[in-house]
Amino acid sequence: MMGRGEAGNDSVEIKVHPRQANTPAGSPPHPSQFQNQSVFKNWVPWLVPLFVVANVAVFIAVMYVNDCPSNSGSCVAPSLGRFSFQPLKENPLLGPSSSTLEKMGALDVNRVVHKHQSWRLISCIWLHAGVFHVLANMLSLLFIGIRLEQEFGFLRVGLVYVISGFGGSLLSALFIQTGISVGASGALFGLLGGMLSELITNWTIYANKFAALLTLLCIIAVNLAVGLLPHVDNFAHIGGFLSGFFLGFVFLIRPQFKWINQKTCPPGYIAPPAQSKHQTYQYVLWVISLIVLIIGFTLGLVALFRGVNVNNNCSWCHYLSCVPSSLWSCKSQQVYCQSMELGSQLKLTCLSNGKSNMYDLSNNDSSKVQMLCAQLCS
């Protein structure tokens, strides 16, 4: 994505000379004796493609569980059977109902705090609201993740992805405590944050440094700006980005050049004296970032499980996720219905638009009632 110059290629010219009895001490070696040795291992990416397959498989499983024809009066693409989508008024992204997403592990702060379902902070990053949602996220994951895994390997990139997704979910839960949240956006922004810190900590190996930095900053700014629109959880983006930024200083560091490992020399050759692989500033950033991550996650979890709503202590923070304008509103889109049992019928009345309807009461659980309420209020 961002090119490296001669100082940053995976192949570095190493000037070594053989032990020859007839070579005078201190005389320079002949140019033909120069050797090229590989410095960095080029990993074969497999974890990021596996993440993509897993996300798509989970989405298919969610649509199977959703079973629109059995739970809704009208579906989009009914020829798909139980894989058909909810009505567009209910889900314009071509996907399942909110009640199905909640059942499958979407982030619900009430369930996390009061029902001890902390696993939702992780499970929600593998769920998507619809076809458009999963396609956008997976294309972005391939575009960003493949390059990082090639350079740093599956373990480090996998840790950045999952921990950043957790960080995005945590910040989202602290600010948005009504409704549900799904999607890998926080984890994706974590990879963007990791790319930025990787560029900073490995600054010396990049060619066109400022052009690379400006390009990456523009990509990040555009994506965060999109998060200022309604119905987009920008707190998950910000939390994931900050987590990934600090994780990049921990996991995505490279040895700096002007050093050579003795093991790279062919038999009979002597390498120049090895210098330090990592610079002092890299160690300093590593320690600071690790401390910030530990403190940040600890304080965030304590605040979450104590039921703290950060918006109560920050009157302007809600603008980080949505900026109101004449074209849209940032008010919550939660729906509430009044229910009344009339014999074997259930009467629901949407409190936001006043619409009412009667439904068969048989085999109605709370999740199905919530889905019917969402349809009535849409």
TrEMBL record:
<dbReference type="GO" id="GO:0005794">
    <property type="term" value="C:Golgi apparatus"/>
</dbReference>
<dbReference type="GO" id="GO:0016020">
    <property type="term" value="C:membrane"/>
</dbReference>
<dbReference type="GO" id="GO:0006508">
    <property type="term" value="P:proteolysis"/>
</dbReference>
<feature type="transmembrane region" description="Helical">
    <location>
        <begin position="182"/>
        <end position="203"/>
    </location>
</feature>
<feature type="transmembrane region" description="Helical">
    <location>
        <begin position="158"/>
        <end position="176"/>
    </location>
</feature>
<keyword id="KW-0812">Transmembrane</keyword>
<keyword id="KW-1133">Transmembrane helix</keyword>
<feature type="transmembrane region" description="Helical">
    <location>
        <begin position="125"/>
        <end position="146"/>
    </location>
</feature>
<feature type="transmembrane region" description="Helical">
    <location>
        <begin position="283"/>
        <end position="305"/>
    </location>
</feature>
<dbReference type="Pfam" id="PF01694">
    <property type="entry name" value="Rhomboid"/>
</dbReference>
<comment type="function">
    <text>Serine protease involved in intramembrane proteolysis.</text>
</comment>
<feature type="domain" description="Peptidase S54 rhomboid">
    <location>
        <begin position="116"/>
        <end position="252"/>
    </location>
</feature>
<dbReference type="InterPro" id="IPR035952">
    <property type="entry name" value="Rhomboid-like_sf"/>
</dbReference>
<dbReference type="InterPro" id="IPR022764">
    <property type="entry name" value="Peptidase_S54_rhomboid_dom"/>
</dbReference>
<protein>
    <recommendedName>
        <fullName>RHOMBOID-like protein</fullName>
        <ecNumber>3.4.21.105</ecNumber>
    </recommendedName>
</protein>
<feature type="transmembrane region" description="Helical">
    <location>
        <begin position="235"/>
        <end position="253"/>
    </location>
</feature>
<keyword id="KW-0720">Serine protease</keyword>
<keyword id="KW-0472">Membrane</keyword>
<dbReference type="InterPro" id="IPR002610">
    <property type="entry name" value="Peptidase_S54_rhomboid-like"/>
</dbReference>
<dbReference type="GO" id="GO:0004252">
    <property type="term" value="F:serine-type endopeptidase activity"/>
</dbReference>
<feature type="transmembrane region" description="Helical">
    <location>
        <begin position="210"/>
        <end position="229"/>
    </location>
</feature>
<keyword id="KW-0378">Hydrolase</keyword>
<keyword id="KW-0645">Protease</keyword>
<comment type="similarity">
    <text>Belongs to the peptidase S54 family.</text>
</comment>
<feature type="transmembrane region" description="Helical">
    <location>
        <begin position="43"/>
        <end position="64"/>
    </location>
</feature>
